[in-house]
Amino acid sequence: MTMVSVGVGPVSEAELVAVARGEAPVELAAESLSALRDTRAIVEALADDIEPHYGISTGFGALATKHIPVQRRAQLQRSLVRSHAAGSGPEVEREVVRSLMLLRLSTLATGRTGVKVDTAQTLAALLNAGITPVVREYGSLGCSGDLAPLAHVALALMGEGEVRDSQGELRSAEQAMAAADIKPIALAEKEGLALINGTDGMLGQLLLACADLDLLLRTADLSAAMSIEAMLGTDRVFAADLQALRPQPGQAVAAANMRALLAGSPIVASHAGPDCVYVQDAYSMRCAPQVAGAARDTLAHARMVAGYELRSAVDNPVITLDGRVESNGNFHGAPVGYVLDFLAIPAADVASMSERRTDRMLDVARSRGLPPFLTDDAGVDSGHMIAQYTQAAVVSELKRLAVPASVDSIPSSAMQEDHVSMGWSAARKLRRSVDGLTRVLAIELLSAARALDLRRPLQPGPATGAVVAALRKSVQGPGPDRYLSPEIEAAVEFVRSGTAVRAANSGLAEELA
């Protein structure tokens, strides 16, 4: 497994996914160790300064005017972490916690936060040992960073609170760290604040969602192509010259994918002649590249914003390159919160179009010769009737999740923090949106595969045929009604794991973009 080196430069989306999901080990680059030592020296020099410095010799938030004597500053940092570890609700997913741990480590490694070398190294050691602090669903307002989620991580670094060990067992941080031979840290001036004041939770979830949506948009092109093929639709509308009349970049990619997926299809060829009575396909078929393409362009914008954030050193106060300690507002989560909300819109809309194609396949009046609800024996069997209900329920939920969280704000900290981003909330609902889109596309793909089987003796194209064949390893073909829920879940995993897209790529000269 490739080691991820965390230096003064940013980690990449791929590196984050590798650490969060793939358990890739991390190490601090030599340049980071040097930067950490240099900046820590500045903090320690300021600790004895008679002039107050926020986070070093003062209280926090609305208590920033209170001077803290030297002998109580270690207690100040411990108290900060303990009081801010105030999350509530269900545990946040392991991959999310690991992503925010990596991103906080990346910020520490820039040398702009003033923590000690051993503090950063201990955070890296927790990641490498597979020790994951328990972080709760509620607690972050997305301003002053993701305070509560990061405080639960900082608490574990101190050897306090609850964690999951590498086997997923719930243990005290003290026990888990002792078992992994990791020594808890003793926080010094500035360190508690540096560990909790960042946008790492919302950014980590944004990057994970971007990786997932990249796969799901290719899957959307695939499921749309399969549905169009199954309903005797035309591929002529996806021609490159027609698409070029509207030069939206994402649309061009989606249309090229669909041309490739439908190329060489005997089903498409069977009704391509001048005697075909189907003049135009419905919007959910004909406009698939326009919708999936717009979603791609939205994703590209979100990745651009994430790229800026990855290159940021978010903390307050921050140690500048010339050695000043300055308060700032870079912890405000608005840039990340906006794109988290933005991505929930195309997730809902791509799913909505997918559900419309599925409904069309099941409707004998619109499916161009397919049996009602793709049944084996209509009346006795219901086929995929209720699978579409499941899709509709998810799509309805996705529309609710598309309502932005970032337009809300509730003042906190005695009105010192009088405008907050709610970026963490936007991130949490986007994760649900991504899961919902996965399920909707899986049901369309499941139904389209069944419809393609029902078109026999006509055969699908090489790429779509490879997908049907791969799906048949876990889901049977057409027949009398069966227990449908396990088949839907198998299709969900088929999509989520990337198996569907890999199967399609096996039938293509070039992989889907």
From TrEMBL:
Catalytic activity, EC: 4.3.1.3
Ribonucleoprotein found in the keyword field: no
Pathway in which this enzyme or protein is active: Amino-acid degradation; L-histidine degradation into L-glutamate; N-formimidoyl-L-glutamate from L-histidine: step 1/3
InterPro entries, sorted: Aromatic_Lyase, Fumarase/histidase_N, HutH, L-Aspartase-like, Phe/His_NH3-lyase_AS
Pfam families in the cross-refs: Lyase_aromatic (PF00221)
Keywords: Histidine metabolism, Lyase
Primary location group: cytoplasm
Gene3D superfamilies in UniProt: Fumarase/aspartase (Central domain), Fumarase/aspartase (N-terminal domain)
NCBIfam families cross-referenced by the UniProt entry: hutH (TIGR01225), PRK09367.1 (NF006871)
Annotated protein name in UniProt: Histidine ammonia-lyase
Annotated organism of origin: Jatrophihabitans lederbergiae
